[in-house]
Amino acid sequence: MDVIEPVRWSDDGAGVRILDQRELPAREVYRDLRTVEDVFAAIATLAVRGAPAIGIAAAMALTLAPDDQVASAAARLASARPTAVNLRWALDRMERAAEKVRGSPAELRSALRAEATRILEEDREMCRRIGEHGAALIPDGARVLTHCNAGALATGGMGTALAAVYVAASEGRKVHVYADETRPLLQGSRLTAWELTRAGIPTTVLVDSAAASLMKAGEIDLCIVGADRIARNGDTANKIGTYPLAIAAAHHGIPFYVAAPTSTFDAGTASGEEILIEHRGADEVRCGFGTLTAPIDADVYNPAFDVTPATLITAIVSDRGVHRAPYDFGPLAR
Amino acid sequence: MDVIEPVRWSDDGAGVRILDQRELPAREVYRDLRTVEDVFAAIATLAVRGAPAIGIAAAMALTLAPDDQVASAAARLASARPTAVNLRWALDRMERAAEKVRGSPAELRSALRAEATRILEEDREMCRRIGEHGAALIPDGARVLTHCNAGALATGGMGTALAAVYVAASEGRKVHVYADETRPLLQGSRLTAWELTRAGIPTTVLVDSAAASLMKAGEIDLCIVGADRIARNGDTANKIGTYPLAIAAAHHGIPFYVAAPTSTFDAGTASGEEILIEHRGADEVRCGFGTLTAPIDADVYNPAFDVTPATLITAIVSDRGVHRAPYDFGPLAR
């Protein structure tokens, strides 16, 4: 299977190469980022997005900081997106790696590069394991609903929720994916439909509010989505629209799965009530894609994420296995 | 209250003046339509939209036909939106009025004009009554969620669902409206937010899938939406996205109201299962903002409506009153 690499080292090794996801699905454009500020901007503007991919990009970005500015660069990068726990986690790891170095600037740089590469490679491995555990939940002929993009484009590997689909397909099972378009930024129609189609998985796009009609018609066998942060009790923050999907799935008796690496489990968060939700700019809603679709001064409510309580989640798939309620992710979180 | 008139007689009485809704929210452009063909084009291209408003515009258009071409003009207008039931109903009424005239061409013209004016005025009166019955459900300080546009822009009067808001506000109660943008055609952000803001009602726009977060946060006191068809048992077809909203409202214990004139009650339909759902073109989803937002050949599921079962509806507000379960709209339907 031809897997996309949304974040990797530049060919000359002196930068971070990203697939600019703002250009999809129209164009497949790669950019070489040469400074911390370039990567900050890429994360803040969603050129690179998806909790694991953001963490990887930020880790790699620290190798671009001047030797005496690693700590300030980490603080800057951490502020690019507040909700995804992977970002903070990856930066903490990089800072710990830097603290261990007692030698020259060259040794520091080498240690940082090695640690960022490990984060990328571990993420690939985690995706593969999530895919294997998740694929066991996807029967032959399954019609799978997903939201946003929890695929290869969101990670260093083959994704989280979509990894389960990729592995099921690679094992010879037929899978049809229904991809919510995912307003306001349309990661489902722009990204999920693009990467699944590119991989040969039959995919149908729908507006977010049409998912319940499909469920009622008996056209959905299971839902699987990613996660941006999972509290100790299993409450899960994910892209806005995940929570109403989980409510509708429960209403129709359809299994609702969350797939995420253990790096998404946050030991410091007891429940979803403690999760800070990022609110984004009004123009994402008012003039998405350059067209004015609301009064220019309209007040807008635009949370980037919502929290799905553990009670609405059938199981959580991680690189460690398939977890079911009652959840206690304290020991697994890192 | 400054209520919009999306359809009325031109100032000189020799045409139909419409607010061109294709230009909203960017520009408030009125057009004087002088021929049957002008009105046909306005209906077909959604310059005028909303089932009641379409019926009124078509009725008025018949007064613009040459004396010997009233029947052919009616046939032409009926074909502009073949699924809109009010359109056929209004034209039938006009033709019956014409058949009663035994005098001169001037008398025919006068009879047609009187009947079209009656259709407009009756619609205004129905809206006012729906508003009065509905306003009783809206307490002071209420935060009201609505979907699509069931406002003045859809009718000859002040709307259906939004009429309740307008009347509550005119009675001095504070109301804050949360308007779902309503993908794919964005009638909520383009039209509802525009007409409410213009009328001085505080309004916040959100993507459809953010409504559940607001409910969970305790920010919504009630939901009120319009209807395209109501079956005898109360099952209601309305804009896609109404059904998941009703599921989420029930999940959070929030009242969910439907507002519609009794002309929307369909005695010929026993339950929602008999309602045929129109599916619309893929490009509404794939390139709805003039920008390609999905792979160009992506498969798309795009139902225009969904059906909310009566069990999820707290009450149905009509021009005759507030109806609660068990519903039997057979006697009320026309």
Notable characteristics:
homodimer; alpha/beta; Four Helix Bundle (Hemerythrin (Met), subunit A); Rossmann fold; three-stranded antiparallel sheet; 10 helices; globular
Give a structural overview.
The structure is a homodimer of 334-residue chains. Chain A is α/β, with parallel strands linked by helices. The first copy, chain A, has two domains: 121 residues, Up-down Bundle (Four Helix Bundle (Hemerythrin (Met), subunit A)); 188 residues, 3-Layer(aba) Sandwich (Rossmann fold). Chain A is built from ten helices and 14 strands. In chain A, strands 6-5-4-7-10-13-14 form a seven-stranded mixed sheet, sandwiched between helices. In chain A, strand 13 and strand 14 form a beta hairpin. The first copy, chain A, is globular and about 65 Å long. Chain A starts with 6 loop residues before the first strand and ends in an 11-residue tail after the last strand. The interface between A and B is large, with 56 and 55 residues. Strand 6 of chain A pairs parallel with strand 11 of chain B.
